[in-house]
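Re: the 329-residue chain
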Amino acid sequence: MTTTSAAPPGSRTPRRRRVGQTEAVLVVVLGALAAQSWLVPRLTDEALRTWSTVFVAIVVQAVPFLVLGVLLAAVIAHLVSDRVLARVVPSRPVLGVPAAGLAGVALPGCECASVPVSASLVRRGVAPAVALTFMLAAPAVNPVVLVATAVAFPDQPLVVVARFLASLLTAVVVGWLWVWRGGAVPMRLPRGGGAHGHGGSFLGSVQHDFLHAAGFLVLGAGVAAAVGTFVPRAVLDSVAGHVLLAVVSMAAFAFVVAMCSEADAFVAASLSAFSDTAKLVFMVVGPAMDIKLASLQVGTFGRSFALVFVPLVLVVATGSAVLVGGWLL
């Protein structure tokens, strides 16, 4: 009978190394080199050149604001604690909701950080409605986002005003609705974790947020450029020309593509076939609720909470954008 000798104390079982970004990029580069005889003739196609021009223009315009937003959010996360936020917010939720909405102007944050920040506020005794209002407002009404919107829509200051008002209205209305009925919705009390949730260091926060948001920026820019280049103009005009269909399609686009709020205005501006109100829907819905935020909220506050909160925010954000856009634009 054979016996298996035990591993010596302190020894570690070697683990298989996971494929990382470097290996993935290397595979893509080698594949492109191997397929260059097939790929090069197709890269000279007129439509592909148009797509690449639009794609690069969107990314180049958006990246500086993305970097600025990530840096500012990291500074705020490390200099302003949630204890300070809890002290400056009024104790009565009805008054705390608009105060938290306006606090988003002075205390910007990325969408990625807004969920753990709001969870930390709830954990420290802030009313859930107030914390959720801040979660919705901070990525949407801060100065970086508004300046980026002004650059994306030059000579259209009403678009900037409309975005600010519609985003703030979304946060406050959802907050007040949560004061009214939120107590009936099961909400798991979050435990542990820091305000930013990226390991504590300033550079770690910046690196995580930039790489995370840049990926969605590239995806969103690629999709927007493809829509403008490859979708037949007749189809695009028929969707954009139907008021309800245009609004629903832009809200769905914002939810699925999940772009960062510092860059989404450039993608919206590139969709020239759509009305300014439909573009506003995209810019208001995205920072308030997208697929990554929904998944974060499921993991943080529980499935029962998300099943009520996610559709509520989508409906209120879309309605606020349509209401404000119809008034101002």
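The chain has 16 helices and no strands.
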